[in-house]
């Protein structure tokens, strides 16, 4: 299977095998990311899975095990949600000292409209037993991992409350079309508010379990590991940390002297974004931006904008920081951890004021 980013100029390749690619800066202006521009994250080669006849096994600590096909799911009552999803390693390049893992800049975040069946519907049909504590999700991808020293299949779990939340979806449709292979075709999980590792792609199994899951991608990866030795235990990566990005002007853009409009997106998995502030240059001269919500979905990023008057030719820098309803704010320094997850520090964007620029 060809690497999607080699065919799509909307993506910036990060690694080719397995395919990993970021959103191109020019595509970050869209409230809903066009499917060809949506970031690609794969831990293993993309599996070849049949379409409508593919079946998901539902079992474990349930009263009645069953399997259900993609065709069966498409005949059920479907729900749609606009969801912003960020890779847990997004921004890893900003970690100092460098952290191990795929070297993401800040383009591993996108928003899509996902349509599918609430996971709760399937779990209620199965009848989850009272002694179940989590639900494990098996993906169709896997491979030999040097770090693990063995073959590993991708699998993750969710606590029961999140699994039973009405907005956790078994998704079949992305932006109004069947999900493409690189994004989990024909069926994947969507866990709103959580980093992307929870939204298991190429979904093949849903199992209620009575003990916390100890799989490789649950215990050894996607954890905040301070790497400080005894007494510093890793903690799980779960909800997306509050973050903002500037998409206009883009890095390195040239603008005319005068009014410079600054626009971007902000999101958080811990609650709605309540404020975004922007600074021109260094120091603490922050200006509050206007917020622009384009959707009623509580899981999609929010737009923001503000304007600065800039006459001095040359290079200028911008910074943005977001606040959420839980009281979180973007830090100035990235919270370092050995695997480079959850990097949500304030990002600097540099642009150029050039009197020779002519609009149009």
Description:
By secondary structure, the chain is mainly beta. Helix content is 7%, strand content 39%. The chain has two domains: 4-236, Oxidoreductase, molybdopterin-binding domain (Sulfite Oxidase, Chain A, domain 2); 243-353, Sandwich (Immunoglobulin-like), CATH 2.60.40. The chain is built from five helices and 23 strands. The strands form six sheets. A five-stranded mixed sheet has the order 4-3-12-7-8. Strands 5, 6, 9, 10 and 11 form a five-stranded antiparallel sheet that branches. Strands 16-23-22-18-19 form a five-stranded mixed sheet, with no helix packed on it. It is globular and about 70 Å long.
Task: Provide key terms for this protein.
five-stranded antiparallel β-sheet, five-stranded mixed β-sheet, Immunoglobulin-like, mainly beta, 360 residues, 7% helix, disordered N terminus, 5 helices, globular, Sulfite Oxidase, Chain A, domain 2
Number of strands: 23
Portion of residues in beta strands equals: 35-45%
Approximate shape = globular
Low-pLDDT windows of residues: 1-8
Helix content: under 10%
Radius of gyration: 21 Å
Count of individual helical segments: 5
Number of domains: 2
- Kindly state the mean pLDDT as a whole number? 94
CATH superfamily of the largest domain: Oxidoreductase, molybdopterin-binding domain
Helix and strand arrangement:
Elements (H helix, E strand, L loop, with lengths): L3 H4 L3 E5 L4 E4 L31 E6 L5 E4 H5 L4 E8 L22 E10 H8 L7 E12 L4 E10 H4 L5 E6 L2 E2 L9 E3 L12 E7 L6 H5 L2 E2 L10 E2 L6 E6 L5 E2 L2 E10 L5 E8 L5 E3 L1 E3 L9 E9 L3 E11 L22 E7 L7
Parallel strand pairs: 3-12, 16-23
Antiparallel strand pairs: 1-2, 3-4, 5-6, 6-9, 7-8, 7-12, 9-10, 9-11, 13-14, 15-17, 17-21, 18-19, 18-22, 20-21, 22-23
